[in-house]
Amino acid sequence: MDCAALCLRGHATWSAAGSLFGLSTPLVHTAGWVITYWYVPAAAAILIWAVGELVVRRLAVKASAERMALELVPSRHFDPQLEEIFRRGVQLARASTSMPWWAPRRTKAVQIRLRADGTTPLRYRIEGPAGGERLLSITPFGSAVTVHRARPLIDKPRRHVVRAEFILRGKPTAPLRDVPLEPDPLQPLIDAVCDLRAELGDLAEIRLDIQRAPKWALRARRVQLLNTARRAERREAQRAVRWLRQDAGGVEDSLAWQLQQLLSSRPATAAGRRLVMPPVPRRIEPAEALGKLTDDDHLARVQLLVMCASNTKGRAEARLAQLQAGLDVFGGRSRWAMRGWRLGPWRLGADRWPTRRGFERRWRLGHCQPPRANWVRLEELTGLLKPPTRYCRLPLAAADLPTFECSNPALLLQGIHRSPDGRSRLVATYAHETLFEVGVGRAGGGKTERALAQAIGWAHAGGGLMFLDPHRDSWPRARPFLAHEDLMQRIALIDLNGLGPHPRISSWNPLGMHQGQRAHEVVEAVTDACASALGWDDANAPRAITLLTAVLAVLLAINEQACAAGRPEDQATLFHVRAVLSDAVFRRTALAAMGRHLDEEMRSWWQVVFPTLTPDAFAVVLNPLARLAANPVTRAFLGQGAGIYNIRAAMDQRMIVWVCPGAGGPTDRLLTALLARDLLRAVRSRRDTPEARRVPFRPYFDELITLTGAAPETIAAMFEDFRKYRCQVHGMTQLLARLPLPVRLSLVQNASTLATTAGSKSAIAPITAEWGDDPSPDHVATLDRFEHYVSLTVHGRRIGPVQLRGCHLDEVFAAQARPRQVPELQRRADANAGALPLGQLHERATHQLGRVTAFLAEHARSRAASARPGKEYE
């Protein structure tokens, strides 16, 4: 029985073995076939992979066609908080998944594009899925950043292009360096592209793709990192064991240890002497081994691509090196490094086969296929998740300020800008946007030289201007550069300094009606000018204002009749106010002849009020006019019946008028006030001309302290009203604080351009305060001579403040200098202003009252035939 059982058991065993062998035989044959024909399954696998990749690429191209782009433009005071930037990063990560379900993972990314091409310092764009547009359009930055839909960018081919892909090197679990927000983390990158030149085809662009981390990839990466850490710890333990054994063996072989054993009473066994306790491998903590990959929150994969191009050999390579240095700022235990290998002078990377084609495909389509090591937390990308802030110094691009071109009427010269690469160019603003300018700085700092350069450039471009300089120093400085035939016929000089042995003076009758003025506007202008210069107002000098207004009404009636009779040379002047008030015979004659040309209220005043006034009431009006008459220059200038000076005609004819009224005392202040008020009246009178036909005109006021001392309200009104009439004012002063408050407020409020040279900190502080003390008064106070800080307006936005060097006439307009033609210019300028010898004009002014009296007598006789003069005026 036992034998039978054994036989049966053996038979079953052999049957099972035969069955197992029968089953394994096909596997063995299959393995042999695979080994023999290995290329067949390899080709099948390759085919399946190729088909799958082709399908994925086609789907990726289709998904990429549905992407959109947004451009972010920060304000000058953009100062985000860390929490705002972090929230923006969360938005970007969330928006990266706003794709159709069928879209491949490589298309599920949001791309940040930092681009510079020499036309702008830096363009900050966001590109991503079209489904995430609403999420990306509303930023946590609020109104400090303007977001608008951006058009696709089309680049022209460049001759030299370099490409690079950056990966994270160093400890894979360590974060990037925590870069502070002040100064801006983007500053090194902007500095790297600050000297790009658009005319050379320079281009530099950084693209950062952000993709939400897939769970399976993150788990695989964690497993890999843990296994790597365990293997490293085991290797370290084994290395420690080897060192321990080596140290123990060295100790046993030493002479000291042998002597110790000979002297010892207890001989040690061989095994006991060589017993070494090996160190146990340290337990690996997941948090320590995984580092920033420990938690799932706000973890993303990134792809960083860089491309630089230029039409000039070597510039693209140099730019890439500068950008690489800029990215080094973010490096710590983990850093951005260029992917590839270097073999001598060659670098195998994105610019070489086989990776170049894949780089270009990802660059063109916006696909994100990041390297395995590029895992980051959103906090590490703080510096790249926002546009440049207020702490970033943006370079001045060529498109920010146009380059000045002489004889171009659309441009207004501003100064010399020195770019970071050492090149200098003349920069300008657009004339139609430069409405008012204010220049502040110490004496000799270059503000007048800068204004002269701008005025000369405007004159050569065909523009009209008025340069009002009380000290006359600007005229000799500007003459050599204005001595051109096409300019001489437009230049007129009104020089009231009376210099030289035979001075020539122009003439002006503020009360003249031969140039088409309106009588009530002239009365208002002259009265307001006298009141402003003499400090009259309705509270402290109402009688003086009323008295002067009434007298001027009579004189203007005389002048209207003289012009109507074709005798403008017989018009009354400002000096005949005394005759109306003090000469009873002349007054009765004038009132009798002009009574019917006055309105009822004015006739009543002369009948009822004037007889009640005592002669003492006239002194406040007559004294300043007597001072004007005592000066032979002002007497000759203001004492002509038919004056030549006509600022309204000068505006319409694009004249270049140089006015030097002098700055000696009260008489000069009154004269300046009359000129300023007449300019205000003339500009306002342009309301009779359609806006499109108003010729641009630019008054330049040097030494505003002197001018505003004579007419503060008038100058303030100019800075408030002139823009409407296409008249742009440029003012220069040493101290803004010394200007009257209305003038100072109007200047700063309406200025399109603010400029300051070096000076005391107290004098500069009002200007730098308008810039938010950036630069600070301490910085501006240390500027070199002719250096300026200027804020400008271009395309409706403020540029600067930027540091410019003031234009020196001998350098900028050296080609326009004509020193040999200066005498001819002086002659033509006097001729255009109708200047005559001082003595001749003074004598004519002395006899002007007689001519007016004779005209009144003739006018009275002509009226006697038809009607007898009213007795009430006798």
Question: How would you describe this structure to a colleague?
Answer:
This protein is of the alpha+beta class and 874 residues long. Strand 9 and strand 10 form a beta hairpin. It is elongated. The model is unreliable at 269-273 and 868-874 (pLDDT under 50).
Radius of gyration using CA atoms only: 45 Å
Largest sheet: 9 strands, antiparallel
Intertermini distance: 176 Å
- Range of strand content: 15-25%
Tell me the number of helical segments per DSSP (H or I, 4 or more residues long).
32
Question: By helix and strand content, what is the structural category?
Answer: alpha+beta
- Binned, the helix content reads 40-55%
Give the low-confidence spans: 269-273, 868-874
How confident overall, as mean pLDDT?
A: 85
How would you describe the shape? elongated
Query: Count of DSSP E strands?
Result: 24
Topology:
Layout: H1 2-36, H2 39-64, E1 67-74, H3 82-95, E2 110-116, E3 123-129, H4 133-137, E4 145-149, E5 160-170, H5 187-192, E6 203-212, H6 215-252, H7 255-263, H8 270-273, H9 286-290, E7 299-310, H10 315-327, E8 334-338, E9 341-343, E10 346-348, H11 355-365, E11 375-377, E12 411-418, E13 424-430, E14 436-440, H12 447-460, E15 464-468, H13 474-482, H14 485-488, E16 491-495, E17 504-505, H15 519-534, H16 542-564, H17 577-582, H18 584-594, H19 600-609, H20 619-630, H21 632-638, H22 647-652, E18 656-660, H23 666-684, E19 697-701, H24 704-710, H25 712-721, E20 729-733, H26 741-750, E21 753-756, H27 761-770, H28 777-781, E22 787-794, E23 797-805, H29 809-812, H30 822-832, E24 836-837, H31 838-846, H32 848-864
Parallel strand pairs: 14-20, 14-21, 15-18, 15-19, 16-18, 19-20
Antiparallel strand pairs: 1-3, 1-4, 2-3, 2-6, 5-7, 5-8, 6-7, 7-11, 9-10, 12-13, 17-24, 21-22, 22-23
Helix pairs in contact: 12-13, 15-16, 15-23, 16-18, 18-32, 21-31, 23-24, 23-25, 24-25, 25-26
